[in-house]
């Protein structure tokens, strides 16, 4: 395909994208396909000679779309939102064209420098303490990671390197394995799966300061890190940073704050108090690719001391050296992350922040929060239902009063009907339905329609129970 | 921005992208900017009210482009190629619009199933042993990772989990830390940085089978994994799988084969022999996002036993459960990787494979290899220069005969002149220049021009030395 054909096909694709998103409400939000549906529709091997573009576009509607869960449908209320906006898509087109791999400053200075400045912009929108910003001469700064999981892992490895060096300096004979055996990381029991997923490490639950002290006092263990979660996946609950932060600070334990979903809300002054205590943290992370209109992937991570990251990951083969790297002025982001390669993702932030403006972004967050409260209000009107967790942002946890089996049956009916899509969670042994405001285009009418639909299915279910 | 404005701006962006790539040859391949150039050109905070799209596009030329290293310029011969093609860019637009997060089958069946089938297509193009393919009922299969680093780490963690379980089954009292202390992974001394970067582990160099045996025989150590590299970053050398493979197989040591750059060439029958011995491997990885026209990121990884990965990473909070997951028919790719989230990256593979056809992809690889041999031929004509490593694929390692300082000075002149861009490597204590065929649009004329340019600078340098 040459540039002329790309001009033609690219414009057709722009229209296809706009048509898809404008018409998404009419598509069934959750697909009907069964596992294994796709393989028989596609040849077993790649074609020897090229297919035509028309063939492919026809196959998108015939083969792909019937198997798509439409995350951007206004009837999608599952998981958490994943961001989608036109400005971000335009920026992604530009990112693809430039196609630089920004592992070092020299590999594309604009890619590195725009990222540093955009992370400062975003940090200021959140009123992050100045210590987290790069500025002209700061010791901290921000980096775009691919996911909150990667940010948590990066923070954990940085903390481990720091603790190991400190202990080995104090006791030069100490082996790395002997250090490793003592280390323990702490997280809330509602922390997302990403926090728990790192094989080979030990992660303990803290609920009370008591537990935390006990682990330390046993002497067999050494606190490596505390991961505090702001806005858990199950019910959007918040760890109390003002409680755990000072303890970490006093004990010299690395505090990582993960606000993957909730972080976007902190750009609104009325939600900023939820971030109070972040001043005690060593690292902080949230995902603009969830709720801040920057398409996946864009996970924003800040650290107070960038040398904590570069100390853990520094990697300097000669083919990556460049003349400026020891100047102290530049950032080589490969030392801040696990992969070597990285795309020009800050373009998405730049386009979105400029084309929405802070006011536009705040209005977007507020609209979602308002819609979740509207849903909460509707649920509270119906005595058959109960709200299961405080509604703070865009997530409502609710259930039919009564046994879990009743709620499992309700969810089964909801998702089988295919009109809306929800997923459940467990809260204190209760099976609970999660209603998350997700789509950029969801309006009050969709929320009310979803509620009427749920009420109708609940009435059917309760009627059937009586028979 | 609404759909109508996106239709307009999207089409303008398509033209901008095509103009950029058609005109890239006229842009200076490596930028003139100094570290810190960008911050003064941009306000310190995001705008409160929206900027216009015109403002942004003007700033792209004014602020971004002067700081871009143009990886797709036909005068870019640095690092290794990073893929860029129009079909992949079209697929990325579609991927952005669908915007699903494919962590489970249910989160978007098409996203998961197309990936499995595309990885089978690609595996067959490479004539991978059937054991690596998913097929209808295979135990193996492929997954798209973000980078070769992630694939290496995933393989390492899977191997560690497997070894630990085996040892703990044999000796139930054995602690994880006691196992960890014994484990050692092996890699070639020319393995890429990604292999060496994992803090907390021990990676030893193997050169000879002797070293490898010695490590095992000491009894203090236990071989965890061997990472063999096909096509190293420095000089594109190849570990001998037929030598190391049978040893690993006999000893039950996990063999991971990393062919990040070279792997794409194996779609050509004449280069397939370089992959011989992969039948002994447990996992294999290469990056279509380097040399197979699939824009970053798309790192293809296969395993023979998918349960080795899912055993290490399985993570099942209730909000990610779905009705099909225990059917044995489906794949939840979140168990195959580190992050939870993932984009619909297989669309890029599908578009590229179909719009180029296998024949077109092979022709592309062959053209690059031919151009590197053309450059090698030119270098060999000039008695002042020497070739420093066998030219197998698209990389030529060369230098001026004489001291390293002379070659450092030559590289300095080359990169200061800004007409072409190269990076160096060290081979056996020699400072060597790497000439990598990178751009999709590079032709014989560019290679010859680059060589004349290098010769001219070398003549100047040698002249200055004599003065």
Question: Could you explain the architecture of this structure?
Answer:
Chains A, B: InterPro entries: Aromatic_deC, PyrdxlP-dep_de-COase, PyrdxlP-dep_Trfase, PyrdxlP-dep_Trfase_major, PyrdxlP-dep_Trfase_small, Pyridoxal-P_BS. Chains A, B: Keywords: Catecholamine biosynthesis, Decarboxylase, Lyase, Pyridoxal phosphate. Chains A, B: Its EC number is 4.1.1.28. Chains A, B: Homodimer. Chains A, B: Pathway: Catecholamine biosynthesis; dopamine biosynthesis; dopamine from L-tyrosine: step 2/2. The structure is a homodimer of 467-residue chains. Chain A is an alpha/beta fold and 467 residues long. Among the domains of chain A are: 3-81, Up-down Bundle (dopa decarboxylase, N-terminal domain); 100-343, Aspartate Aminotransferase, domain 2. Chain A is 43% helix and 12% strand. The first copy, chain A, has 14 helices and eleven strands. Chain A has helices at 3-22, 53-64, 86-98, 109-125, 148-170, 176-182, 193-196, 209-217, 241-251, 288-291, 306-313, 346-381, 404-417, 444-466, and strands at residues 141-145, 183-187, 203-205, 222-229, 254-258, 283-286, 299-303, 385-387, 395-400, 423-427, 430-436. In chain A, strands 1-7-6-5-4-2-3 form a seven-stranded mixed β-sheet, sandwiched between helices. In chain A, strands 8-9-11-10 form a four-stranded antiparallel β-sheet. In chain A, helix 9 (241-251) links the parallel strand 4 and strand 5. In chain A, helix 4 runs parallel beside helix 12 and helix 12 (346-381) packs across helix 14 (444-466). The longest helix of chain A has 36 residues, at 346-381. In chain A, 55% of the residues are buried. The model of chain A is unreliable at 196-201 (pLDDT under 50). The interface between A and B is large, with 147 and 147 residues.
